[in-house]
Design goal:
The protein is α/β, with parallel strands linked by helices. It has a single domain, classed as Alpha-Beta Complex (Spore Coat Polysaccharide Biosynthesis Protein SpsA, Chain A). 42% of the residues lie in helices and 19% in strands. It contains 8 helices and 9 strands. The strands form 2 sheets. The chain has a 7-stranded mixed beta sheet with strand order 3-2-1-4-7-5-8, with helices on both faces. A two-stranded parallel sheet has the order 6-9. Strand 1, helix 1 and strand 2 form a beta-alpha-beta unit. Helix 7 runs parallel beside helix 8. The radius of gyration is 17 Å and the shape is globular.
Length: 240
């Protein structure tokens, strides 16, 4: 397959984490992919804490790093859609989405890419054998695990971690699932894209990961975001 993997990293107020997560990703992928055999795209929604300026500095110093500045904060889904469009317009063979706060371990990136050699969509999964959620309190565990179980039941899927945000898409998946019509803005976006991939006939596999709470900064999760997922999941089933 021509092209190189792109890692899409959405950011809003991640000044405390961005440089260290970028350095970690570069270190891991340079050792496995080789220099200039991947791209790292930071998608910043005009963070008031200076995240965008840090991203620009990193891009000026590191040839693999790109930056996409967005003028308004619209939510996780639109930020990812903008990043995916940029990657597909470039030379992406695969597109990986991950968080910028070290919840997702950069050392798992080669594992996802290896699994994508035989799968169309690879999910870094907290809820299969070997998967772990560390550091979270009871409330967040209930929201996350319950959200995945709810979506699994409503949509009739055998996938265990539907709300996770650590994924590797083959280019063909993103091209086939009609990204511009995605309606989700929060974490329902994760459910929607996986559901669309399954309905389109693509092969989805789950790779166990250790998921940790963010190192620094404030979580973007809220009850409003969880509520959006509760409303949108049945709509996905009906629209299909």
């Amino acid at each position: 397959m021509p092209g190189v993997p792109w890692i899409v990293l959405p950011t809003f107020d991640e000044a405390e984490n961005l440089e260290s997560i970028t350095r970690a990703i570069l270190r891991v992928l340079r050792s496995t992919q080789g220099h200039d055999r991947f791209r790292l795209l930071v998608v910043d929604d005009s963070s008031p804490d200076g995240t965008g300026e840090i991203a620009d500095r990193l891009a000026a110093a590191e040839p693999e790093v790109r930056v996409l500045h967005r003028s308004t904060r619209e939510g996780l889904g639109p930020a990812y859609l903008a990043g995916f469009a940029e990657a597909l317009a470039g030379d992406a063979s695969h597109v990986i989405e991950m968080d910028a706060d070290f919840s997702h371990d950069p050392y798992d990136l080669p594992r996802l890419l290896r699994a994508a050699e035989t799968a169309d969509l690879v999910l870094g999964s907290r809820y299969v054998a070997g998967g772990v959620v560390a550091d979270w309190g009871l409330t967040r565990r209930i929201i996350s695990r319950g959200g995945s179980a709810y979506a699994q039941r409503v949509l009739g899927l055998g996938i265990h971690d539907l709300t996770g945000g650590f994924k590797c898409f083959r280019r063909e998946v993103l091209e086939a699932i009609d990204l511009p019509t995605s309606r989700s803005r929060g974490y329902a976006f994760q459910v929607e894209l996986t559901y669309r991939a399954v309905k389109a006939g693509f092969r989805v596999v789950e790779v166990p990961i250790v998921f940790r709470d963010r190192r620094l900064g404030r979580s973007k999760m809220s009850w409003r975001i969880a509520g959006e997922a509760m409303v949108l999941v049945p709509q996905l089933r009906r629209s299909s």
